[in-house]
Amino acid sequence: MNALNTLTAHDLLARMQQGECTSESAVRAILDAIGRVDPVLHSYLTVNAEASLTQAREADAARRGGDDRPLLGVPIAVKDVLNVRGQPCTCASKILKGYVAPYDATAIARLRAAGAVFVGRTNMDEFAMGSTTENSAYGVTRNPWATDHVPGGSSGGSAVAVAADEAIAALGTDTGGSIRQPAAFCGCVGLKPSYGRVSRYGLTAYASSLDQIGPMTKDVRDAALLLQAMAGYDPLDSSSLPAPVPDFAAALKTDLKGVTLGLPREYFVGGLDPDVERRLQEAVAVCRQLGATTVEVSLPRTRQAIATYYIIAAAEASANLARFDGVRYGFRAAGSEDPLSLYKRTRAQGFGDEVKRRIILGTYVLSSGYYDAFYLRAQKVRALIRNDFGAAFEKCDAILAPVSPTPAYRIGEKSADPLQMYLGDIFTVPVNLAGICGLSVPCGFTAANLPVGLQIVGPALGEEAILRVGHAYENATEWHRRRPGSESSARQE
Ligand code: GLN
Predict the structure, then answer these.
(1) Which of 87, 104, 333, 341 would be a feasible disulfide site paired with 346, CB 3.0-4.6 Å?
(2) Which atom of ligand 1 is nearest to the CA of 177?
C-alpha cells in the first residue's frame, strides 16, 4: 500500500470514505515526510502541525457523523501569498514579517467549507515576482529531482511540496506562469484558471489584471476537484465572473475524439531545448493517437509578449505595493523621525532587489511623458495578443505548447541576469495577458532526468476543454506517476 502522503486527493478521499484510513493519519504521514525531506528542499515557510492535526481530527469526527463534503480531511499546502485567518502571510518578503492575516481569502474560505485541512505555507519568490523561488527573503527552495536546481517559481514551494509528497495538493498563483512553470520544473500538474474564474479576494495583489489562484496537484483529476471547490463568482471581487461553474469532473474523458488541437507556428521555431522539443513532439503524437486532430495556428504577437507583460505587470505592481509603507502592515524600520523617512527606510530595508526593480520600472512606465510610449502602448499590444488567441480558437478547441523553453536550471545560473530570466516566460505570459486558461501536465524527462511539462491552453472559461485533454493525455502516459529519487522521496510501493 502506498504511504498516505503519496496519494492523490481523490484516492485519499476514496480510502477515507471506505474507512481504510483517516485524515489524521494522512496529516501525520505528510508531517513525517516534511520532517524527512524539507530540511533539504525547504518548500515550506511554516508548518501548522498542531492546528492541522486538530482540523484533521475534526474532519474524521465529521465523517463518522455522515459528513461527505468534497475535500473533507484532505491536507493542502498554501502559497504564502494567500490570506488564511490567524496565519502569518509573508509573501516571502521581509516587509510582511510579523503580519498575521485577519481573514480568509475567498479561495481559502471555499476550500475550508469543502473540508480541506491547511498543513502549512509554502515558499515563493517575494510577492510572486520571479521564476525560480530564489527571490524569497527566507531562503531558496530546491528541486527534488536535482537539489542543485531551481524548482521554478514563483510558486516553487507549492510545486516541490506536491512533487516530493510533502502535501496531497497545493495552491499557487499565476500572474505570468507561476503555477505552470514550477509545475513543469518539478513534474506535477498546475492549472491557471481563466481570469475571473477564481476570486482574487484575499490574494495579496502583484498585478491585479493578471493574477489568478489555481491548484497544483499530482494529477488532472485533482486539479478539477480543487478548481470545483474554489471557482465561481464572489461579490468581494468584482473582477470574478458571474458565469456558471460547470461540473469539471464530468469533462474528464479518456479519449480525444472530435477534439482539434492547435499547434502555434511561432512556438516551434527553434530556441527550444532539444529534449523539451522532443518530449513535446511525442506528446503531440500521443494526443493524435487518442483521436485528436491537429492544426497549425498562428500567434503572431508572441515576440512582443515579454515586453508587454513586464511593462503591465511592473506598472500594476508599483501601484499595488505602495500600501507597504511601515504603517499598516508587518515590518517597520527603526530610527525614523518623520513619516517620509519611515516610508523610505521601511521600503528600502523591507523589499528585496527584484521587487525594487519592478517598482522602479513600473513607476517609470506610468510616469507622465512615458505613459503613452510604454504603458498605453503595452495595453494596445495586449489587446492584439488577446485577438490572436481569439482567432486561433476559431480553428481549435485547445492549443498545445511548451511551458518553458528549458527544463529546470541550476540555482544561481540566471539570477544575475534578469533579462535572461524574463525571457524564460515566453510561453506562459501570453495566456495571462489574454485572460485565458492554461494547464501544465508532466510529459516526460530530459536526458538528465529533469521533468518536462506540456502546456494545454484553452479559451476564456474553457477549463473543461483543457482538463479533458490533460486527463486523456495523462491517462495514456505514466509521467505524472514518477517520483523524485530516494533522497527526497517518501513513496513506497
Ligand atoms: N516569472 C513571472 C514574473 O516574474 C511570472 C510570475 C508570476 O506568475 N507570479 O513576473
Answers:
(1) 333
(2) 8
Q: Whose CA is nearest to atom 5 of ligand 1?
A: 176
Per-residue pLDDT tens digits for 359-408: 999 999 999 899 999 999 999 999 999 999 999 999 999 999 999 999 99
Q: How far is the CA of 135 from the centre of ligand 1 (A)?
A: 11
Supply 353's cell numbers: 532587489
Name the strands in the sheet holding 212-217, side by side, starting at the edge strand that comes first in the sequence: 44-47, 117-122, 75-79, 169-174, 212-217, 189-192, 437-445, 451-458, 398-402, 260-264, 293-297
Distance 470 CA to ligand 1 centre (A): 23
Give the domain ranges of the chain.
4-300+383-481
Per-residue pLDDT tens over the stretch 115-129: 999 999 999 999 999
Inter-residue contact 441 to 456 (CB < 8 Å): yes
> How many helices (DSSP H) and strands (DSSP E) are in the chain?
15, 11
CATH code for the part of the protein at 4-300+383-481: 3.90.1300.10
